[in-house]
Design goal:
Elements (H helix, E strand, L loop, with lengths): L1 H17 L4 E8 L3 E7 L4 E8 L3 E13 L6 E14 L2 E3 L14 E3 L2 E14 L5 E14 L4 E14 L1
Antiparallel strand pairs: 1-2, 1-10, 2-3, 3-4, 4-5, 5-8, 6-7, 8-9, 9-10
Length: about 160
């Protein structure tokens, strides 16, 4: 019985791993950290949503264009753009996380709403024998806050997703 179950699981994962990668869900570590969902809308174009929960709640949406990287199977590079909104729920300094720019004013802020635009440039590897995707990217960010400051910076992250 154990051998039959193991054989069935291997066949199932083999078929899943060989299926076309259309959508994936997983975790994103870095900035922003959170849950990530990615869906291909065509062969080379995808949309990604990121729900981040650090210092409040936020949502980032990205449109990405994928191309094969370095002639390596299952390795793609991608670039794109999008936007974000974040609602802060606790007291923090406007310049507190190292990449926000607020000029000389680094006063404490009691909850605010940030909105901005994001770019993205990254590499993504799809494991051919198991339905896992690894993505590493860097994002330039420009935004403003309801607390009266603006920010410019970059962020990087690593995402691990299960695709189906």
């Amino acid at each position: 019985m154990k051998k039959s179950a193991l054989l069935f699981a291997m066949i199932l994962f083999g078929f899943v791993a060989q299926a076309q990668y259309e959508q994936a869900i997983g975790l994103r570590f870095g900035f922003p950290s959170g849950l990530t969902y990615k869906k291909f809308v065509s062969d080379k174009n995808a949309i990604e949503g990121i729900l981040h929960l650090g210092n409040g709640i936020g949502l980032t949406g990205l449109y990405q264009i994928h191309n094969q990287a370095f002639g390596v199977d299952n390795l793609n590079w991608y670039y794109g753009f999008g936007g974000h909104v974040h609602i802060s729920n606790r007291r923090h300094f406007a310049y507190g996380n190292g990449w926000r720019y607020s000029g000389r004013n680094t006063r404490p802020v009691d909850g605010d709403i940030d909105v901005g635009v994001n770019g993205v440039l990254g590499l993504e590897y799809t494991v051919p024998t198991f339905p896992i995707v690894f993505a590493l990217d860097i994002s330039p960010i420009i935004g403003m806050s309801s607390a009266g400051y603006t920010y410019i910076g970059t962020a990087s992250s690593l995402a691990i997703r299960f695709y189906f």
